[in-house]
Amino acid sequence: MEEPNPRSLDTIATDALSSVLEWLASDYLRVEVSGLDNIPECSPAMLIANHSGAWGLDAFVLHNLLHRELRRPVYFHASPIVFRLPPVASYARQHGAFADDPTLGSDRLTEGHLVGVFPEGLDGVGKPFSQRYRLRPFSPGFAVTAMRTQVPVIPVSIVGAEETYPKLGSIASLARRFDLPYFPVTTLLPLPAKWRITVGEPVPAPASSDTFAERSAATRRLCDEVWFTVQGMVDRDVRRRTTAFW
After folding, report:
1. How far is the CA of 168 from the CAs of 82, 175, 178, 210, in angstroms?
2. Does residue 7 lie within any of the structural domains?
3. Domain of 74: which CATH number?
4. Is residue 11 domain-resident?
5. Residue 10 located in a structural domain
6. What confidence score (pLDDT) does residue 99 get?
7. Which residue range(s) make up the domain with 73?
8. CA distances from 191 to 186, 208, 235 (A)
9. Directed axis angle between helix 212-240 and helix 141-149, to 10°?
10. pLDDT score, position 174
């Protein structure tokens, strides 16, 4: 019997996940998006978003939405864990997600593309539900890349993911078994929280300086400015709702 073509299986898996994400965003999570006009139509930029929810569903919903609305590729920096999970690894690979790149997609930016980064990393999705929407410190790598490539940084806030997959605890034995940083105690299926995604105004990257000390200081300022901007956008959108499931 002829063996199935692995590429065909990858395509089937990717198409299936894309359809599920489309349904989740449009019908189940009822995602409202604003500020898409802040993303350039053809020039490069870095999209910097908060990261939350026990399983990191926000990364896939955001990518699927941007891929559909912008009609141009968006390359996301992903955790290596993503590529160990067969159901999502095919989707990530076929849509240009990348990991283990210390330059955070500099080559893609210099080619004129969009790059998305979640600078909280696993700390963002790993925080307990009691600390929801309190952003963890941003890793400054994105600011280094933005300055090196001189591309603008576009802040993005995502509200709703914390309630969709609330992290209520962690099971250490399962985390060790599957070699994960944590194994969350959460709902089996996503809860139908309503999501709001807001794209903020671009923050220009400061000009690169001749000295290491000045470059480091400028990098830190840019990182802090974007962190405060995203946290402020998240706080504002959380205040706007009367309930997470409205």
Report:
1. 22, 15, 19, 48
2. no
3. 3.40.1130
4. no
5. no
6. 92
7. 29-240
8. 10, 45, 21
9. 110
10. 94
Buried-state track 131-151, b at ≥16 Cβ within 10 A, e below 16:
ebbebbebbbbbbbbbbbbeb
| Total of domains in the chain | 1
**From the first residue on, what is the mean pLDDT of each consecutive set of 10 residues in the chain (246 residues)?**
58 85 94 97 97 94 94 94 86 90 95 98 95 97 96 98 96 93 94 97 92 93 98 97 88
Q: Report the distance separating Cα 104 and Cα 37, nearest Å.
A: 24
Say what the pLDDT of residue 1 is: 47
**Could you tell me if 178 and 85 are in contact, meaning their C-beta atoms sit under 8 angstroms apart?**
no
Q: Is 122 left (phi over 0), alpha (psi -120 to 50) or beta?
A: alpha
In this prediction, residue 209 carries a pLDDT of 83
| Cα separation, 19 vs 22, whole angstroms | 5
d(CA 231, CA 186): 24
DSSP string computed for 113-181:
-EEEE-TTTHHHHHS-GGGTT-PPPPPTHHHHHHHHHT--EEEEEEESHHHHS---EE-HHHHHHTT-S
- Percentage helix, strand, coil, to 5, in the chain? 45, 15, 40
Residue 24 inside a domain? The answer is no
State how far the Cα of 200 lies from the Cα of 155, in Å rounded to an integer.
Answer: 5
